[in-house]
Amino acid sequence: MAKFISFCSQKGGVGKTSITTHVATYFYQVERIPVAIFDCDFPQHSLQSIRTSEIERLKMDEGFLRKAEKLGQTPYPIYADSVANTLPKLDAYANKNELVLIDLPGTLNVEGMPSMIQRLDAAVLLLEADPLSFESTMHTVLAMAKFSNKNGGMVPTYLLWNKFDSRERKDRYSGLEQAAINYLDSLNESRKTPMNVHFMEHRIPDTVAIKDTRSTLFPNAVIKPLIQELNNIFASNS
Ligand SMILES: Nc1ncnc2c1ncn2[C@@H]1O[C@H](COP(=O)(O)OP(=O)(O)O)[C@@H](O)[C@H]1O
Ligand SMILES: [Mg+2]
């Protein structure tokens, strides 16, 4: 079965495009899983722009081309279109064993978004430790809780710290996590079915390696711990 996954957030600059790119390339090139990306973040389509600039570089830089040839397989496809236009295209993946990553716009207020969220097998919300970003993610969680998926429950939603700063006070992250859990627990008391929200164990470090090695062609081990945790999640959800 295809897995429809989205790394999302309602705030820009949190790392959606970077993490989607790293995850797609690692699964495709290292784990050898078929991958397709739908870049629905109109009008930037920044994920597709990364691919376009890499293709340009292949034409100009022989060393880069030789390195790419060694990968031994053509790159995974990246389709750029609106959320509404992408929805019917997902049907073709329903019976494929493929990982489909969808880079969504930074707002839920877009045509087709409720149907898109309902189709996801998992939403990974990226979090930063500043109060505004954290609060906006909590709003997203509540908005997502309103859309039930094909099983009638909330789309499995994972909260993932990005740009994790290990020099911060130890309790900064765990304190925010506990506050979020308490808040969600209090809301769950008045819900028939509890929200399906979990913090991921891995925290993606704030490192230039994430910036510098972001590629739709070449995988980078900086993302490996996240891939391992995602594999565990996919295995337990299927
Ligand atoms: N873990 C990280 N460490 C360092 N820089 C990061 C990290 N994740 C993202 N960035 C940087 O943050 C900026 C915004 O990331 P981007 O993926 O474009 O966010 P979004 O798609 O959510 O707007 C980019 O400059 C990117 O290189
Ligand atoms: Mg982006």
From TrEMBL:
<dbReference type="InterPro" id="IPR002586">
    <property type="entry name" value="CobQ/CobB/MinD/ParA_Nub-bd_dom"/>
</dbReference>
<dbReference type="Pfam" id="PF01656">
    <property type="entry name" value="CbiA"/>
</dbReference>
<feature type="domain" description="CobQ/CobB/MinD/ParA nucleotide binding">
    <location>
        <begin position="5"/>
        <end position="189"/>
    </location>
</feature>
<protein>
    <recommendedName>
        <fullName>CobQ/CobB/MinD/ParA nucleotide binding domain-containing protein</fullName>
    </recommendedName>
</protein>
<dbReference type="InterPro" id="IPR027417">
    <property type="entry name" value="P-loop_NTPase"/>
</dbReference>
<dbReference type="InterPro" id="IPR050678">
    <property type="entry name" value="DNA_Partitioning_ATPase"/>
</dbReference>
